[in-house]
């Protein structure tokens, strides 16, 4: 039977030091999803990119990332998680250098796609290393608390970094900044990490790879095109339908092949499945808030890029307080949905608060309240969901389980941004059509129209988060923590027979 080699680096201090460098890699992945956003106007002007093409600077990254994650997870399982982690870091470094030096749109687009491809290797290998390093419940809770805080706060930190780098240096540094981070993480990982891998023969599920990659590319590309073509266009409908068919075919194939790309036992667990659902629904409902609040502060309120970045700091602080101060302490003691469901409801109130924003609303009574609610809610959700997305999985499947939760995050981000941005843009256009007189609309009307669009999108996002909370409450199993001795015994066994977390069910 296939086994996994020794997974714990020797010594507790060594494991926690290794977590620092794995966390740096995760921070880089999350930063790269948002750090370029604030730089978009500058790089668009510098490279002469059209308004219709500028979105692909973001989408090229998420498209490659989201569609290749499951393959990346399997590569990590079979070729070695440490080896994959180090190769992905070096590849990400090269792609970032290429993008920073790009002199035209095509080269920058290629570099962003390469970044996404290497991130698809890096994300699963990093999370699976964390999964096999920390198996004792108390240490695992602390480790995933740190990991969740990095994942949830990294987006806001990326906006801050993007604003500072764009304003004081150049947009190219939003890509160059990855180089020192990746090199530090690679050096530390090489010194501290212990290799682990699936010892069976590496047989890759080629039909599964083609079906899931094609399906996810169609879904992500289709949602990206909806922003410009409309959701009812033949191209968008065709792409989404093709994506759905390919993904259904993928599930069918995975239930038949002997060594599937995604063993269905990984997602069949109600606890792990609930965790994937929580991550996906959360990012669908929340990630677009970065976009809306950025445009609100820069376009409506007239903030500079650096001031906008600084204005996001309270969200980062709220995440750290919630994830590090509260979730880490409660995670080993309470069932997962006791934290996830309130977190999603608190976040939904944060999105609803966007409805109170007007062009003249003060920062303290508007954006600040939204950020604090979103940050506190995210700190309750992400560490718990990421923990239970891999908790109790067979060690041989650690990479693909990690890839599955990363896929939920990336696809949710793409879907949420496309859906909510389309709703906001449609509402803004309708408001201008009904209120504008002949000639160009005045600046105040443009600002009010933008705010109306943000409010509509915020209301829909709140509804998505509430629906997600209800689904998690109903579908997610509620394991109760075992006594320490029982938990340690289960942990040493590698998981329960049905694939559920190493906890007793209610």
From TrEMBL:
CDD domains per UniProt: MFS_MMR_MDR_like
Keyword field: Antibiotic resistance, Cell membrane, Membrane, Transmembrane, Transmembrane helix, Transport
Pfam families per the UniProt record, alphabetical: MFS_1 (PF07690)
InterPro entries for the chain: EmrB-like, MFS, MFS_dom, MFS_trans_sf
Main location: membrane
Transmembrane segments: 16-36, 56-73, 85-105, 117-134, 146-169, 175-193, 205-224, 236-253, 274-297, 309-331, 338-357, 363-386, 454-476
Major facilitator superfamily (MFS) profile domain sequence ranges: 18-480
Its membrane topology: Multi-pass membrane protein
Subcellular location: Cell membrane
Descriptive protein name: MFS transporter
The organism of origin for this protein: Streptomyces gossypii
